[in-house]
Each structure stands twice: as C-alpha cells, then as structure tokens.
Specification:
Layout lengths: L1 E9 L3 E9 L4 E5 L1 H10 L2 E2 L1 E4 L6 E4 L1 H4 L5 E5 L2 E4 L13 E9 L3 E8 L4 E4 L1 H10 L2 E2 L1 E3 L4 E3 L4 E4 L14 H5 L22 H4 L14
Amino acid sequence: MYFATSIMMLGYTRINGVQAYNNVTREFNELTPAQARKLIEQGNLKGVLWKNNEDGGAFVCDVDGWNQQEILVRTACGKFRPLVNDLPGRPINSIYTVVRVLDTDYRGRLFEVVSNTCARIKIEEQNLRELAAITTVAGVWITDTRIDLSEDVVYEDRRAICKETDSEPLTLDDVFGACENNDSFMGENTDTEPEEPKEEEVKQSPKKPVGKGKRK
C-alpha cells in the first residue's frame, strides 16, 4: 500500500508526480503521474485522487475517504506550498498522515505517522492530538472523545495474548517423556538396587611392571 505525502509539480501547471510512502518496503518513492493514477485505480494509493478537467487532469485531496484536507506540493528541492490554501505569507508546516496503528504492552496504543519531509515516527494519542491542533493529519478523524481510523490504515496488535484452553495442563512426563528405568519423570527408580559385588569380584589382579624393551 502507498500513502501520498506530497504532490510534485513544476510551477503551477506541470504535474511531475506523487511522493508516497510504501508501507511494505518502508521507503518514500517518487511515482510518475501514470504510476500514481494506476495505483489509485487499483485502490493502492491513499490520500489523493485523480480528477479530469479541461487542462487534462490533476491530483486532488481525498477528503471523504482519507480525510486529506490539505496536501503539500513540492515545487523544488526542499520547497513546498499548500495545494488547497496557498496563501502568501502563511507559514507552511509539515503535513502528516497516519499509516499504521499498533497496540503494545509497553506504551499502549501508538500511531505511526509519515510526513512530506520523509519523516516516520510513532507517537501516542496525546501527541497525535497536539499535532492535529497545529497542522493537517490525514487518515484519521479526531474528535474530543475519540479517534476514528480510515479502514485502510494498517492495524497491528503487538500485545502478548494468553489464550485459555479446555485441555488438561501438560505434565513434565508429557514434555520430556518418562526416563529409562523410572515410572515417571519425577518418580523413583522402581528397579531393586543391585547387590554389592563380592570382595573377590572387585579384587583386581596386580599390574605387571612395565619394563623397557630389549634393544636389538
């Protein structure tokens, strides 16, 4: 899946492509207009739509499906302008989009966001709300009481889940198997102890002294 982070244009009329985040390779790829349009038709590029007009067509924000209220246009190296509200003198903040949500044991719910400057970070809900208060955050709908996700935002449950079963718990014998000559893994040896050997049986014959061989 690709998530649009900015539109690339030369000036105000010539469309150069779309910069998008690939959540499989975790790269920021530059897509040609033809590639981007094909991905949109396949449902694999989120954040922008293609709209035909008298000039041939243009990329527009996907407001309904992705809550992309604004997106930045990259006009040169490190230069951006808003696509919708391009007002002279207005400060331009980076724009973010939520691409993944993770439920974890160590930090609770985390939101992975990417930006038009190729940043990718994981933040908590309070940080996401603070971010949405100063700039556009797409892929989610944030209210005072809840955060609704677009159905195309990737969700991962990283919590440790203990599943209860109706089966009997395994014993050590089940795990390791019964030991030889034992009734069970922790049981006592059921064989009778061998009799102590008689004295003549354990008496060893004296060792012969080792002498030097004769020289020829």
